[in-house]
Amino acid sequence: MINVLIMRKEQSSNAINEQFLFEVCELNSAISMISGRWKSQIVYSISQGNNRFHLLQKELPNISEAVLARQLKELETHAILVKQEIPNTTPIGVAYKLTNKGADLVPILEQLCDWGKAYAAGKAITSPTSPC
User: Fold this and answer.
1) What is the pLDDT of residues 104-121, one digit of tens each?
2) Phi then psi for 96, rounded to 5 degrees?
3) Dist. CA 131–CA 112, nearest whole Å
4) SS3 assignment, position 117
5) Most buried by CB count within 10 Å: which residue of 30, 55, 80, 131?
6) Burial (0-12, 13-18, 19+ Cβ within 10 Å), 3
7) Within 10 A of 6 (CB to CB), how many other CB atoms are there?
8) CATH number of the domain bearing residue 57
9) 3-state secondary structure of 95
């Protein structure tokens, strides 16, 4: 299991319960990998060609640089995306690319969006970077 970035005691009841849930159902592990306010939007935006940090900032104007950087690092840690150096750029440019694992996630996010449209109440805002 990849370590969660949240610091907590390994023997706390929260850590023990989390470990138990991960062991009894892979769904809990999957949700843990994509949980976070911005991760689904980031994955979908990259799938639509917004593969540079500044393009992601433009598509998600309400996310801070620090949060975007942290969410990208977490997605990279879970092998949902990879960071690739762009040759012949000064300063060195970086592009983000979905791995096969990340690309397989996009239709699932679209299905979750459809489910949310059908059953979630109070949807206030739609975004061009959303699978919805």
Assistant:
1) 999 999 999 888 888 887
2) -105, 140
3) 9
4) helix
5) 80
6) exposed
7) 8
8) 1.10.10.10
9) strand
Tell whether 18 is covered by a domain.
no
C-beta of residue 116 within 8 angstroms of C-beta of residue 132: yes
Residue 2 lies in a domain: no
Structure tokens at 13: 């009841």
Owning domain of residue 70? 37-117
Quickly state the pLDDT bin for 123 (edges 50, 70, 90): low
Greatest distance between any 2 Cα atoms in the chain: 51
Q: Which two tokens stand for residue 114?
A: 């459809």
Report the candidate in 44, 70, 42, 47 with the shortest Cα–Cα distance to residue 57. 42
In angstroms, the CA 129 to CA 101 distance is 19
The label of the residue with tokens 């940090």 reads 53
Cis peptide before 91 (omega within 30 of 0): yes
